[in-house]
From TrEMBL:
Record-linked InterPro entries: Cof, HAD-like_sf, HAD-SF_hydro_IIB, HAD_sf, HMP-PP_phosphatase
Metal-binding in keyword set: yes
Gene: cof
GO MF terms, alphabetically ordered: hydrolase activity, acting on acid anhydrides, in phosphorus-containing anhydrides; magnesium ion binding; phosphatase activity
Domain of life from the UniProt record: Bacteria
Active-site residue numbers: D8
Protein name (database record): HMP-PP phosphatase
Length: 272
């Protein structure tokens, strides 16, 4: 029996309309009744995640900013990492060959340079939103991550530029097909979950995790039971071909899988 369960949010726990389904909430509460520690591991900001967890009374640890922050169930900071100021400054002051929008995250929230109403759709149920800033004027210290959002092919070309510029100084990772992130070197959900598991005295082999994007790769590969969503990025499925693939987030596939795992663990599982 796993002692800790870690969940990505977008494309995994959340349905395409960016909300948690009732069956998903119910099965998460069943895990808590079995004394399984819940952890939400997401690219979203803690300022957005904390109210959600409190509203649902799920009493979970939070890994936010794709591993740059860990918060305890009481809201205390357990771990933090930031981009090197020189990297953050260079990212923000370089003219990259891309049409993607740029987004900066720090403990104060989410910042961007122009109104992009369509990006707020992913946050419609929380009300979390960006703050408008001249990004070139923002301080480069204590930046958790910088995101580029846009067309996937454009971002693939941008990734080549970023890797060439920041090799061994930052990690460059797709958190979705339309979102490329510049993260502190060595920061990812897997590394953060390892920190949390040591803090709790839980072995990584006693953890299970669910995800759908390349920013979940390290986490899924390190736990004893990693599970990939049916709607996951093709790159993730190719990177971890030995892991099981379940159904689509639109059908609350995580709840379907966990209900089977809780009720009939000795029977083979078939996606819905």
């Amino acid at each position: 029996m796993a002692r800790l369960a870690a969940f990505d949010m977008d494309g995994t726990l959340l349905m395409p309309d960016h909300r948690l389904g009732e069956r998903t909430v119910a099965v998460l509460k069943r895990l808590r009744e079995r004394n399984i520690t819940l952890t939400f591991a997401t690219g979203r900001h803690v300022l957005e995640m904390r109210p959600l967890v409190e509203k649902l009374s799920l009493n979970a640890f939070l890994i936010t900013g794709n591993g740059t922050r860990i918060h305890t169930q009481q809201g205390e900071v357990l771990h933090r990492s930031d981009l090197s100021p020189d990297v953050a400054e260079e990212v923000l002051h370089t003219r990259w060959d891309t049409q993607a929008s740029v987004h900066v995250f720090n403990d104060g929230g989410w910042f961007t340079g122009q109104e992009i109403p369509e990006m707020l759709k992913a946050h419609v149920y929380s009300g979390f939103r960006y703050q408008l800033r001249d990004l070139r004027m923002m301080p480069a210290h204590q930046v958790t991550k910088i995101c580029f959002c846009g067309d996937h092919d454009d971002l693939c070309r941008l990734r080549i530029q970023l890797v060439e510029a920041f090799d061994k100084r930052a990690d460059i990772c797709f958190s979705a097909v339309d979102c490329l992130e510049v993260l502190p070197l060595g920061s990812n959900k897997g590394a953060a979950l390892s920190v949390l598991s040591r803090h709790l005295g839980v072995g990584m082999d006693e953890c299970m995790a669910f995800g759908d994007a390349m920013n979940d790769r390290e986490m899924l590969g390190l736990v004893g039971r990693g599970v990939i969503m049916g709607n996951a990025m093709g790159q993730l499925k190719a990177a971890l071909p030995h892991l099981p693939i379940i159904g689509n987030c639109k059908n609350q596939a995580v709840s379907h899988y966990l209900a089977h795992w809780l009720d009939t663990p000795n029977l083979p599982y078939s996606p819905e």
